[in-house]
Amino acid sequence: MRAAVLMLSVLAAPAMAQGPEYELALGWDSKYVSEGRDNLGRGGIGWAVLAASFGNLTPYAVVGRADSEAFTEWNFGLEYALELMPDLDAHVGIQQVETYADERLSETELFAELAWHRIDWLIPSVAYTYSFETSGYFVELSLHSNWHIGEQFTLSPYITQGLDYQYVTEAHNGRNHLQFGLEAEYMLSDSLAVSGHISRSIAGHDIELEMGDEARDETFAGIHLHWSF
User: Fold this and answer.
1) Pairing of strands 153-165, 147-149
2) Residue of 157, 145, 181, 144 whose CA lies nearest to 36
3) What is this structure's pTM?
4) Among 27, 138, 217, 225, which residue's beta carbon has the most beta carbons within 10 A?
């Protein structure tokens, strides 16, 4: 799975970098929820991100470490920003995921994202992830709405529908989970920002088939600090 802490999201339309630019991010989430599932038995997870942009090309490294159990995840990836139209942002990339827990897991993924920024208060996007290990893919259809409360503070309610096609399970193709929440970002300076979110994930049919009576909805939150230089 792609670590959400990377924050290559539709909160704002990214400008194409003209020279080397770097970003360092540190954060914590109360749960590690991806594809509508809590990946940890208990507790939250801390994140660290280092990314470097050279024009449209961005290599990055992400590490996450659980705070209440033995779990570490590394993500190493390369992302390319496509210049399609002034209001249409597209990204494609590849990443390697290495997980160290009760057993070691290794996974290679291709991903692509598309977001339309014509109207800032209604931004539709679609994200696609393909796994070589499962030969399956996962799709997320999202709507974000950016509300600028002054020059430094932005509130962004969002809703996402996740669709699983043998990416997580083989038992069912289709509705995996519905997630909604509120994201917030405050610019402390031109290069330093703090962001947070509170989110609710509703289990869909795919999760219910996989987990049976143990299927559950998830509520979680997080806070992150971003430094660009």
Assistant:
1) antiparallel
2) 181
3) 0.89
4) 138
